[in-house]
Amino acid sequence: MDLVRGWVPLRNRDSHKGDYGRVHILSGCVGYTGAPYFASEAAVRSGSGLVYLHVPQEIWPILAVKCRETMVFPLSEASLLEKLSKADAVLIGPGLGRDPLRDSRTRQLARELQNPLVLDADGINAFSGHIDVLKARKGRLTILTPHEGEFSRLLGCSLGDLDRAAAAEGFARESGCIVVLKGHRTISAFPDGALYVNTTGNPGMAKGGSGDVLSGMILSLLGQGMSAEQAVPAAVWLHGRAGDLCASRLGEYGMTPSDLLQAIPEAFQLK
Fold this sequence. Notes:
Strand order of the largest sheet: 3-2-1-4-5-6-7-8-9
Largest sheet: 9 strands, mixed
Radius of gyration: 17 Å
CATH architecture of the domain at 92-267: 3-Layer(aba) Sandwich
Structural class: alpha/beta
Strand content: 5-15%
Order of helices and strands: HEHEHEHEHEHHEHHEEEHHH
Helix content: 40-55%
CATH topology of the domain at 92-267: UDP-N-acetylmuramoyl-L-alanine:D-glutamate ligase
Number of helices: 12
Shape: globular
């Protein structure tokens, strides 16, 4: 806790919403309306000043009603790059779904965006067999948040008996990306060899939506100006702490990702 307390800055008394980051999220498809909600709400609850959510036209009415603190826009291919380029940080992938056109769009955005980029879920899957695109972003901040299945697809082989920490560290060095390998004792591996093994969290978080919450928290701290070296392990630790708060009150069986969202504010109380 002391380490994270030292990283998360106190807020200036005379600040305004523009001081706490403009973050953009590209997320969601038919059948997956929860993921954009969890990611965007997590960004709000982690302190972002302005959160913009871009979703397909088909699900825009649902998210426009569901997300009260987020600015929700129907996806416009013509202006998407221009809008995302103005963000302090961008998240692509939660609930995005897969088809050749969507995967190609994700890779093209990764090529062209210069700002910090977080890739989660299908935003990661789009790079299976296309690691060259990630390597081409060296010098620009790229964060991947895979679970073991998604990471195996990136590697092109099963993790199997491989050492998780060594595999994450090796891929981070090779690709130039920060790798957040989710699971028991989530690993945050950096291209320079720095590595963090998280100590918070519990099996009650093993439910669809928990990872979307984490990606929104990472995005939020980056957008607020924290360095990746601090924002990534801090968000992972705070996410797990929120889960531990839920488990202590509700038990591991009944807690949900919605409960995680509700616990984020208390998780940030680091006094």
